[in-house]
Amino acid sequence: MSGNVISLDGLSVSSKDTLTKAMEADGCSSSACGSSDAPEDMDPATWEKVKDHPCYSEEAHHYFARMHVAVAPACNIQCNYCNRKYDCANESRPGVVSERLTPENAARKVIAVANEIPQLSVLGIAGPGDSAYDWRKTRETFRLVHQQLPDIKLCLSTNGLALPEHVDDLMDMNIDHVTLTINMIDPEVGTKIYPWIFYEHKRRTGLEASRILHERQMQSLDMLHERGILVKVNSVMIPGINDEHLLEVNKEVKKRGAFLHNIMPLISAPEHGTVFGLEGQRGPTAAELKKLQDACAGGANLMKHCRQCRADAVGLLGEDRGQEFTMDLVPDEVTYDPAKRETYKEWVAKEREDRRAAAAVAKAETDAAVAEEAAPMLIAVATKGGGRINQHFGHATEFQIFEVDAKGVNFVTHRRCDNYCVGGYGEEDKLELVIKTLEGIDTILCAKIGDCPREDLAAAGIEAIQDYAYEYIETAVSAVYRARRGLPAVEAETA
Amino acid sequence: MALQIIQSNCTVCGACEFECPNAAILFESDTYIIAPELCTECKGHYDRPQCAEVCPVPETCVPA
After folding, report:
1. Which of A281-285, A434-438, B57-61 has the lowest mean pLDDT?
2. Which family is this sequence assigned to (chain A) (predicted)?
3. How many CA atoms lie within 13 A of A274 on its CB side?
4. Facing B13 at nearest CB: one of A75, A201, A203
């Protein structure tokens, strides 16, 4: 098994030395997506639905993996950020896929992955194409997978235009997660995003297209919400087109019962061959995205751990092992072996309890050692999952950013330093990219870092700390915060 | 009277097969083709040929 996912052997965290040695011998990657809410923030029925879903629960994203299968390539709308001719194995972004599958092949692949990656908890159908429009293939894939792996959560992502007809099927298949991509609630805005839709046997353009799409999207959201299916709304933030408008979208989808709102930056470049790419439409900067997310506070809960993964991604969020499971590598006959996944689930249940307890202790210690009004701090963490600082700096393709203050530690976002394309960067370029990616952050926690990069980072004003290798993120981040912002020791003890 | 699919443009998404009222679109050798003897250009069914209406790539489902 590749080191990208925590191997079962490595689950029991023994001494730091053993783990550090293991890491030197092993390769690795990263983790992390959904609501940052913990169980105490939601009703038990909802928590039961989201607790193992990496996209719906920020906590779950440290432990559980998803996979997407591209079985539904037909689409009923055209978006200006999509070009159906595009495919690149090095690209990591939605709608990009290197291999299309029949439902039978997809089911075989899911079993092969479940046998190898015990963290697998979710199967999603997310394009290219629209899972609800190409419904026969989506339904057949779900049926075949459910027969053999009844405990895998099934979910789909759709533009909503064709969804209302299939909501009863969703109920029959016990699907409790649906993602709707809603980029506008004002059809005038929609005309700049959607050149046409195909609806009731006719291609429709202009305002008519966006009006119909909008009405069907709202109908879909209402129908799903009425039936208790959790809805995540995905919105693509397109500067100058719907950026300010997404505030209104956020309010509206909250009003209509969306569980989570995921505002994603437009990814746009001329070489993608999309209308936006060719017109030079830019994506938002990290600061613009953060500003919009902050402005949405009080509206629908925002998902901040989305990795905008490929439509054939496999693994924990933030990593993609899809290339290890292309169909030519999947055996003709695969038999599901539940043992590994069961062992993993038991381990996760205990590990999550331990982590929560450790986070509570760290919070209490910080509360006692730091003045209430002490300024918050942002800290970058290199992790490959499991909620621990367990990744080598040199293997990190992204960093998870945590904000800490006297009230506790909160996940803020991830910052990718692979620039959406996993190939084509030399080591030196990479370090420069990391430094740029970490703008505004002066501390990185990682399991290990070489002397050279550490010195280069220090020269750029960033301190890389490896003293907290394999500790829980909350524990380590709190300790660093106390060291930087803590009151003098005497006061702290009496506080 | 039939349409054809320009193979170099086709993304093999299958939307046309899905929409064809005559089941005239077949998947053969990893690509879609229109059986001319079955294609009616949707006359009698719809105002415009459904394959051309739904196809995501311009100038791909065109008169043969």
Report:
1. A434-438
2. Belongs to the radical SAM superfamily. NifB family.
3. 24
4. A75
Q: What does the pLDDT read at residue A226? A: 96
Residues of B in contact with A201 (CB under 8 A): 19, 46, 50, 53
> Is pLDDT at B51 greater than 60 in this prediction?
yes
Residue range(s) defining the domain that contains residue B58: 3-63
For B10, which residue in chain A has the nearest alpha carbon? A85
Q: Check B48 against A203: CB less than 8 A apart.
A: yes
User: Kindly report the CA angle at A385 between A379 and A386, in degrees rounded to 5?
Assistant: 100
Q: Shortest Cα distance from B34 to chain A (angstroms)?
A: 17
Instruction: Count the domains in chain B.
Output: 1
Q: Which residues contact A245 (CB under 8 A, 6 or more apart)?
A: A184, A185, A186, A189
Terminal C-alpha separation, chain A: 49
Q: Which residue of B has its CA nearest to A85?
A: B11
Helix axes A451-459, A427-437, angle to 10 degrees: 40
Distances (CA, A) of A327 to A102, A106, A154: 11, 9, 21
Fold of A339-494: Nucleotidyltransferase; domain 5 (3.30.420)
Cα A22 to Cα A9, A161, A469, distances in angstroms: 11, 50, 12
CB contact under 8 A, A201 and B53: yes
**Which chain B residue has the Cα nearest residue A127?**
B13
Taking only the tens place, the pLDDT of each residue in A342-374 is 888 888 888 889 998 999 999 999 988 888 888
Supply the pTM of this predicted model.
Answer: 0.78
- What are the residue boundaries of the structural domains of chain A, listed by start? 33-329, 339-494
Contacts of B50 in chain A (CB under 8 A): 201
Sort residue A409 into left (φ over 0), alpha (ψ -120 to 50) or beta.
beta
Q: Minimal Cα–Cα distance from A313 to chain B, Å?
A: 19
CATH code of the domain covering residue B47 = 3.30.70.20
Give the pLDDT of residue A34.
43
Strand-pair partners of A156: A125, A178
Sign of CA dihedral A428, A433, A436, A442: negative
**Which residue of A lies nearest to B19 if distances are taken between CA atoms?**
A201
DSSP per position, A161-213: TTGGGGHHHHHHTT--EEEEE---SSHHHHTTT-SEEEETTEEEEHHHHHHHH
Q: Find out whether A446 and A454 touch, Cβ atoms under 8 Å.
A: no
A84·B53 Cβ contact <8 A: no
User: Nearest CA of chain A to the CA of B37: how many Å?
Assistant: 22
ipTM, two decimals: 0.96
**What class has domain A33-329?**
alpha beta
pLDDT for A54 equals: 77
